[in-house]
Design brief:
Length: 279
């Protein structure tokens, strides 16, 4: 590829959620990873259970394994974190969790935090839910700005977030009016939005700051090469757009729970091979 570089690749602790963080970091170091996306989940780093001193402990572990955090992603699908929740107490708690994430991500040296814009109940008027998302993200955008962090919005079906496609993300960016809020693309969830990689890049109108890379269809977030996605073509479109942000490996599927090292290392190697390949 002409523009994409191996240095843009982020490994991650996503598939290691049944292992200790020490095991995950040692594994990532062993495969030659340096830059990572840090998945803040139990048992590694659940936001409800950690304090500032735990951040310092993690920073030392990162240094010991020659790893640096580029993106920080708190768990917000499996846990009850929802910044657009109908219940005001749940919404406030969720905003506080993201404020904590912003502070801790900054301490770890991260540039980005992956955010879902929240969701309502399926019997609600979606525009009312949308307004709650805008309000919450406006608060978080101002907070993130003061820390120099970018919040990158994922797209997903209505059960998970109000931003279902890249046009929704751009609308959310405009309505929150915060320079700290940007967009991202997930190769494994593009099918849900009905967009091609090129459409998503174009629709984001220059707001693309982060990309999750995984294979998919019919099951998502697979080892690269195990699904049906044309990942080389997707990467080609990013290359043509001169995308210079992270390419983060979100390998997250229960089938890899017993051998997360192989899942991440295989994907890490294959992504390097895709990038090295001549167009």
């Amino acid at each position: 590829m002409k523009n994409l570089k191996e240095s843009q690749i982020l490994a991650s602790n996503y598939p290691y959620y049944r292992y200790s963080l020490d095991y995950a970091f040692e594994s990532l170091n062993r495969m030659g990873a340096s830059a990572i996306e840090f998945y803040a989940c139990f048992p590694h780093f659940h936001l409800d259970d950690v304090s500032y001193w735990d951040v310092k402990r993690i920073i030392k572990k990162l240094a010991d394994n020659e790893l640096n955090v580029v993106c920080f992603t708190p768990e917000q699908c499996s846990y009850p974190v929802n910044i657009a929740a109908l219940d005001i107490n749940a919404r406030k708690r969720s905003i506080d969790i993201f404020k904590k994430s912003i502070q801790y991500a900054s301490e770890m040296g991260a540039e980005y935090i992956v955010v879902l814009a929240g969701y309502g109940t399926l019997d609600e008027d979606e525009q009312i839910v949308w307004r709650r998302s805008v309000e919450s993200l406006g608060i978080l955008g101002s907070f993130a700005e003061s820390y120099g962090i970018k919040l990158v919005l994922e797209t997903s079906p209505r059960e998970y977030t109000t931003t279902h496609n890249s046009k929704d993300v751009v609308r959310m960016i405009r309505e929150t009016d915060s320079p700290a809020i940007k967009g991202m693309i997930d190769t494994a969830t593009l099918g849900y939005s009905g967009e091609t990689m090129k459409q998503a890049i174009d629709d984001l109108e220059g707001n693309l700051c982060h990309v999750h890379v995984a294979d998919g269809i019919p099951n998502g977030h697979l080892i690269l090469g195990e699904g049906c996605l044309d990942l080389p073509d997707m990467l080609k479109r990013l290359d043509e757009a001169e995308y210079s942000g992270p390419l983060s490996l979100e390998i997250l599927n229960d089938k890899y729970v017993k051998n997360p090292h192989a899942a991440m290392e295989t994907s890490f190697i294959r992504l390097k091979e895709y990038i090295k390949k001549e167009i």
